[in-house]
Amino acid sequence: MIGYIIVSIVSGILFVVMDGLINANPLAQRLYKAYKPITKTSMNIPAGIIIDLVYGFVMAGIFLLLYTSLPGELGLVKGISFAFLAWFFRGVMFVTSHWMMFNVPIGALLYTLVAGLGEMLILGILYGLTLRPFI
Q1: Cβ-contact 64, 133 below 8 angstroms
Q2: Quick check: pTM over 0.85?
Q3: What is the pLDDT of residue 59?
Q4: DSSP conformational letter for 32
Q5: 109: which residues sit within 8 A by CB, 6+ positions away?
Q6: pLDDT tens digits, 106-127
Q7: pLDDT at 134
Q8: Of 65, 74, 83, 73, which is closest to residue 18 (Cα–Cα)?
């Protein structure tokens, strides 16, 4: 249980750092200009940190719940499988919806897709290398 808590906190911190790196870099700022009219002018940083920490606990918990159902014998393979699953539901569906509903440049959508895959792979590998079911 202590391992789950530690890994969840680490993954939440990784979410915070990666979200900052992915969204605040000059390339992302240029690609995401299409969102400028609806982008908030300031961010609630404490709320963002709390949300990302909660995501860390939720993602780690879901990984543990799915562990025996994920393909592969090694934790690493299970982590990568989980990463692709999470990426589909988090990244691919988001990008597909935005492609259908908004006039957003394809470059911004591809960047979101690739960055999301990288983020999920990092977290999936972390989970796969460190977490095992409690039973």
Answers
A1: yes
A2: yes
A3: 97
A4: G
A5: 95, 98, 99
A6: 999 999 999 999 999 999 999 9
A7: 79
A8: 83
* Domain residue ranges of the chain, discontinuous segments joined by +: 2-130
Q: Quick check: 56 and 124 in contact, CB under 8 A?
A: no
Structure tokens at 37: 């009219």
User: How does pLDDT run across 9-24, given as a tens digit for each residue?
Assistant: 999 999 999 999 999 8
CB-based contacts of 131, cutoff 8 Å, min separation 6: 3, 4, 7, 60, 63, 64, 67, 75
Query: How far apart, in whole angstroms, are the C-alpha atoms of residue 64 and residue 96?
Result: 28
Angle value at C-alpha 57, between 81 and 46, nearest 5 degrees: 125
Q: Which one-letter amino acid corresponds to residue 96?
A: T
Instruction: Name the residue among 16, 22, 3 with its Cα closest to residue 126.
Output: 3
The span from the CA of 53 to the CA of 47, in Å, is 10
How many C-alpha atoms does 33 have within 13 Å on its Cβ side?
Answer: 6
